[in-house]
Amino acid sequence: xxxxxxxxxxxxxxxxxxxxxxxxxxxxxxxxxxxxxxxxxxxxxxxxxxxxxxxxxxxxxxxxxxxxxxxxxxxxxxxxxxxxxxxxxxxxxxxxxxxxxxxxxxxxxxxxxxxxxxxxxxxxxxxxxxxxxxxxxxxxxxxxxxxxxxxxxxxxxxxxxxxxxxxxxxxxxxxxxxxxxxxxxxxxxxxxxxxxxxxxxxxxxxxxxxxxxxxxxxxxxxxxxxxxxxxxxxxxxxxxxxxxxxxxxxxxxxxxxxxxxxxxxxxxxxxxxxxxxxxxxxxxxxxxxxxxxxxxxxxxxxxxxxxxxxxxxxxxxxxxxxxxxxxxxxxxxxxxxxxxxxxxxxxxxxxxxxxxxxxxxxxxxxxxxxxxxxxxx
Length: 377
Hints:
The chain is α/β, with parallel strands linked by helices and about 375 residues long.
């Protein structure tokens, strides 16, 4: 949904402009206690102030611009044609427009009108229909066909789309049953949510090279690494690139190390290993560093949680080169190396350890092929 900080996540407004619509809207609001309810003052029953119901006079068109800005979802007991005409001047972008659902005056149909995927209108439509006993009307091709929604692929796991401009053509390829290559080098594997098997025109490959050799019409590429120019040409000419949150950075540093120095080491390391910063999941260190200003500032700047472990926990990880010096000062035979493995739930490092100035860094990748996975704590 919208990244507008003024919005509270999943705030829903229910709006009605007719007598029967108002009665249905009140019923729906009782079943959706977190939603705000708006209807015309002439249908007031006297309990609106106590119930926190908002009344308005004049055309609903006058309040829609404000509702568009303040809410993530709008459920409108208004005719579809009227809604289309009223919201048309308000539309900005499918990534920021709110979900819009229309319900008829007899609650026979709940219709997903706007922002079906990214705005959550399809999910809101199903919810409203279930609560009112209405029939959900959803026309999004991927939902109807029960196939991959390219703009939502991996969103539940926190995957980020790097080239959103390719979503529309790749979505068309998916619903038109063209040859689709899903190149998944990392990230959660349980993204197929339907009971039926994966459609035959969609094939999953474990590497870019494997997919390029096989041939395809469009691609969904899930990887934490930076692609080569050749891979970009082959995969992203008609492909969408997703960044899963799989990189764990184990960090050790001297007391008082400034954030800028740690940040520089992180960026240099990611560039050296050809890894995407968008795939960093979290930082990991020893509990002695939980209040280290530089680490905390880096964590806050990038939104990377800082996971910390006690010396005893770190010492459960066998190290090829345990350090007596580190043990003398921390009680652990290593900091960045074991912290990275413990947090990622991995058995080996992508980079065991690199020391640069006041900073020591280790890199591990969350192994989603394994049955059990560690989570950020």
